[in-house]
Predict the structure of Piggybac transposable element-derived protein 4-like protein.
Amino acid sequence: MSSMHSDSAIVVNKHNKEMPEVVSYYNSTEGGVDTLDLMAHTVSSKRQTKRWPMVMLYNILDIGSIAESVVYPTEQFSKTDKRREFQLSISKDLIMPVIERRRKSQDCQYS
């Protein structure tokens, strides 16, 4: 489960339950994932889809917008507005090459 914990040490948690040290360590450090999930749920780009590449793209956009707000913090906007603005900006940047390519192919069809 972990190369950091090679022995099978047993510890007692706050509920007086015995558990392996590696499980106790994992439980004490998993809060970051929960926080990320909560922040991603607040302003999400996810849509209902059965296509796994789209699910991955939506997750990347959500996590990228959270990372952007951590790396480049500003007080100009509220965090929700800033994340939404970033999501719209990255969405436009991703779709513009497709729009240009379709426009060129349609110009060829009508010429």
